[in-house]
Amino acid sequence: MRIFDPHIHMTSRTTDDYTAMYEAGVRALVEPSFWLGQPRTSPGSFYDYFDSLLGWEPFRAAQHGIAHHCTIALNPKEAGDARCVPVLDELPRYLVKDGVVAVGEIGYDSMTPAEDTALAAQLQLAADHGLPALVHTPHRDKAAGLRRTLDVLRESVLPPERVLLDHLNEATVDEAAASGCWLGFSIYPDTKMDEQRMVRLLRLHGTQRVLVNSAADWGRSDPLKTRAVGDAMLDAGFTDDEVDQVLWRNPVAFYGQSGRLEPDLSEASAAPPTYEGNSILRGGE
Ligand SMILES: [Zn+2]
């Protein structure tokens, strides 16, 4: 089973996770930029983080045979913090870089006017740079959050086929599907979606335009949930081809719209021995 995790925060995961992911079939991933739990106090802290998503973390992933891509944005949680808003002006400098396959995560957290402004501005940046957008739907008040997100999307110039609506569930999938956007589902250990609910949703909605991710970060989460969905699909009678569509071909098709996915994703990428003179091989070659 080959797996492309379209949303996982590897910065907060260990080398053991990389090893286990590779063994489970993960060969490629997208790491969206997001908040770090601890609020940032200045734009400079974003730029160092963006640079690490473009430099250090792909280097680390390559040690484990996994192709790493990222999405760059001012995240919803910090879009309302006046100390962070200047980041919007610097984003174009990052959106031209090779490893960036979308603008994201953008979207709503508390649905404030400042978040409106940041969302609309970043959808425009995606259009200007020929990139798709990864749009997070809020975890609280999901239905209202999705409706407001879709309103802003309709007013933007970005077409729905360039938008991935993420963190969907049974309550939001119908409206999201009707919008023409791609549909993302985050599978968590004990909240929100789990693999059995995901299989039921796939039965109802089919496998077109559906992406499944672990959204693993520093919270309670599991980077092998993509594989768990693949196994649950096979147990439920889905074919290998349908599993491959959801776990590989759909994310490749969506992020491929950037024109920046690594050319041969299922081949382990050759890792350079050091990054900025630093090796993580700890005495290895
Ligand atoms: Zn995330």
From TrEMBL:
Protein name per Swiss-Prot or TrEMBL: Hydrolase TatD
Family to which the UniProt record says this protein belongs: Belongs to the metallo-dependent hydrolases superfamily.
Mitochondrion keyword on record: no
MF GO annotations: hydrolase activity, acting on ester bonds; metal ion binding
Pfam families, A to Z: TatD_DNase
Lineage top rank: taxon: Bacteria
Alphabetical keyword list: Hydrolase, Metal-binding
Region: Disordered, residue numbers: 263-285
SUPFAM superfamilies: Metallo-dependent hydrolases (SSF51556)
Matches recorded under InterPro entries: Metal_Hydrolase (IPR032466), TatD-like (IPR001130), UCP005295 (IPR012022)
